[in-house]
Amino acid sequence: MPPSVTPDWTFEREHWRRGYFRVAGVDEAGRGAWAGPVTVAAVLLPGLATEYPFRDSKQLSAAQRETLAAQVREVALSWAVEHAWPEEIDRLNILGATHAAALRALARLDPAPQALVTDYLKLRTALPLSAPPRADALSYSVAAASLLAKTGRDRLMTELDDQFPGYGFAAHKGYGAPAHRAALRELGVSPVHRRSFAPIRALLAPATSLFEAE
């Protein structure tokens, strides 16, 4: 997908034609990270096919994301951000935890949505759902949600960097960067790492085996 792609209302219009005018966009941030939460945002924008400057958060600088996220919060009819922390991720698996956080975010929207557009997140819901791939680059509603999810999670990872110094969470946001790998070898696994993820599980395996042998 070229970075110059501009979102529009194509997927929302499919729902509008069926009489569902309150269409919420849903997107997540942090599914592939080794530490910290997966964060899901739900955004209900005003309809009327207004054009917005919102874009997929991955196409923007941190400063641009913060500016546009503030605009999303200002213009949205309703918005919500929810986090699924490592304990929930380890218990439900990453997809299950992402779905649970998405449903919590949607439950907080007021007015309630009548239909959804997600970034390939096929939620179990009674609401009419469109879940195309790369919807964060193609749909205004999902782009708006991507901005809130990304900026919300980035702020949390910066806070976790203060709480757990040495891991570099503020820089790599919990993803498997070389600096993160090196910090794990030196410091071990923190309370905010996802123990069910293979790289973390591998680090814990020797200690687990020793404990079980005793």
List keywords for this structure.
214 residues; Nucleotidyltransferase, domain 5; alpha/beta; disordered C terminus; 5 strands; 9 helices; 5-stranded mixed sheet
Summarize the structure in words.
- By secondary structure, the chain is of the alpha/beta class.
- The protein has one domain: Ribonuclease H-like superfamily/Ribonuclease H (Nucleotidyltransferase, domain 5).
- It is built from nine helices and five strands; from the N terminus they run αββαβααββααααα.
- A five-stranded mixed sheet has the order 3-2-1-4-5.
- Strand 1 and strand 2 form a beta hairpin.
- The chain is elongated.
- It starts with 9 loop residues before the first helix and ends with a helix.
β-strand amount: 5-15%
Largest sheet: 5 strands, mixed
State the secondary-structure class. Answer: alpha/beta
User: Which geometry do the CA atoms define?
Assistant: elongated
- Mean pLDDT, all residues: 93
* Sheet with the most strands: spatial strand order: 3-2-1-4-5
Query: Kindly, what is the distance between the CA atoms of the first and last residues, rounded to a whole number of angstroms?
Result: 53 Å
**Helical percent range?**
40-55%
In N-to-C order, the SSE pattern is HEEHEHHEEHHHHH
Q: Which architecture per CATH? A: 2-Layer Sandwich
User: In total, how many domains does the architecture comprise?
Assistant: 1
> CATH superfamily, please?
Ribonuclease H-like superfamily/Ribonuclease H
Number of strands: 5
Name of the CATH class:
Alpha Beta
Residue windows where pLDDT falls under 50 for at least 5 positions: 208-214
CATH-derived topology: Nucleotidyltransferase, domain 5
Oligomer: single chain
- Over all CA atoms, what is the radius of gyration? 18 Å
